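FAQ: What does the model actually see?

It sees only this:
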Amino acid sequence: MAASVTGAAPTPQASPTPLDRVVPAPASADPGGSPYRITRGTHIRVDGSREARGVGEYLARILRPSTGYRLPVTAQGAGGIRLRLAEGPFGAEGYRLDSGRHGVTITAARPAGLFHGVQTLRQLLPAAVEKDSVQPGPWLVAGGTITDTPRYGWRGAMLDVSRHFFTVDQVKRYIDQLALYKINKLHLHLSDDQGWRIAVDSWPRLATYGGSTEVGGGPGGYYTKADYKEIVRYAASRYLEVVPEIDMPGHTNAALASYADLNCDGVAPPLYTGTEVGFSSLCVGKEITYDFVDDVIRELAALTPGRYLHIGGDEAHSTSHEDFVTFMDRVQPIVAKYGKTVVGWHQLTGATPAKGALAQYWGLDGTSAEEKERVAEAARNGTGVILSPADRVYLDMKYTKETPLGLSWAGYVEVKRSYDWDPGAYLPEVPENAVRGVEAPMWSETLENSGHIEFMAFPRLPGVAELGWSSAASLDWERYKVRLAAQAERWDALGIDYYRSPQVPWGGTGK
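And it is asked to produce this:
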C-alpha cells in the first residue's frame, strides 16, 4: 500500500500534446485523425542521404533512453517515423510534419528543415521523453499536419565567453538548448578587455597571457584550435552556424596587455578583471595594428566554415570618430579578403559598412533618433540589420531588481517585455526587407556557469526564438504565455533551471 503513495509511477499522459502548443508557433497546424503511438516496434526510416541519417540518429539518441526502445534507424520498411528529403515549398529550413495512426512523416527540402521538424516532434511528445532513464509513456503524437517555414534567416544567440570563460562542454550544452527552439546562429564573443579566448598561432600570447584571467580575477581560459573546431562541428550537427567575434578597436585590453606594440605608446597595460567599458583601443595609426588584424582574421576565418565574421565596433569611446572610420575602412576589406562577410555592432554605421555587411542593433527603445537614423540610412543603402535591442532581448539583463544575477543598465527585462514587440516594425525607418532577423545576446559579467546561463535564458530565449521564426500575425502574448508555461515540464526533464516569472501561468508545471 505504501508503494502506491511513495513509489507509484507517474500517471500516463491521457491525450497527446495539441499541434498548436509548439514554440516557436508553426506557420500552420491542422489537427485531425488518430494519434501515432511510438512503440517497441517503431523504426526511424530515413532516405539514403548521409544528412538525413544523421538527423535520424540524433532523434534516436533523444528517444531511446526515455522510451527504452531500440528505434533502429533504417532505410527499409514502412510506417514508424519517417524523415524524408523532397523538393517542396519549404525553403532552406522549413518542413511539413504529418502524423496519423500509422506513423509520423517529416518532409523537408534540406536537412536543416528535417532537423527543425524533429524539434517540433520532440515538443509534441510528453516532456518525460527528454529524461535519460526509462519512463512509462505512452508516447503519443497528435494526429494532423504542421506546415512550417521561418520568418527570418537569422535567429541567433550570442554567448560572451570573454568576461567569464565557458568550457567546450558548457557551450555544447547551450547549443543543445538553442537547437530545441530552432535557433540557427551561435555568435561567440571571443575577445574583450577581460580575456582573449581563441588561440592564434602567429600571436600566441593573446591566448596564453591575454586569456589567463576573467572578471573577478579567476583563471580564465581559452579554446585551442581543436576546441574551437569541436564547437563548430557540434553546432553544425545541430544546424547552427558559428559566428565568431573579435571585438575591435575597443574592448581590446587583453590584446593590448599581451603585445606592447599594439599600444600607441608601446607600453602594455596590466590585465583587466573589472567590468568598465570604453577605455581601451588598438592604435589606429600603427601599421602593426593591421598586421595583427590580418593575422587574427586569417586564422579565425580558416577555422570557421560559416559565412560571417563579427568585428565588434561598439563602445570605442577611446577611439576618435576619425580614427574609428579609418580603422573600419582598413579592416572590413581584410574580412572580405579571407572570404567572410562583415557583421558589426550598429556603431559600424558611423563609418561606411562594406557591401553586404550586417549591422547588429543593440540600442534601446529610447536611443536617440539620430543614432537610429544612421542605422536606417545604412539599411536603405543595402546594409542588413540584426535586431538585438538591449532592453528587449539582452538575456543578461535582470528580470526585476530582485534578480540575483545580471545587470540592469538597460532596465529590467521581464518575460513579456522580451517577447512583446515586432522585429519587422521595431525601427520604423528601417525597411522591413533590410531586417535579417533577431539575436539574443548573453553577456557574462555576472555569469559563471551553465546554471547561471540557463536561469537568464529561460524563459526569455524561447520568446526571442519565436520572434525570429513565427509570422508577425501569430505573435500574441496572451496565447504565447500559455504555450510557454507548458514548456516548464520539459525544462525540468532536461535539468534546466529557469526564472518562474509571475507573468507566466505556470500552473502545476515546474518546480
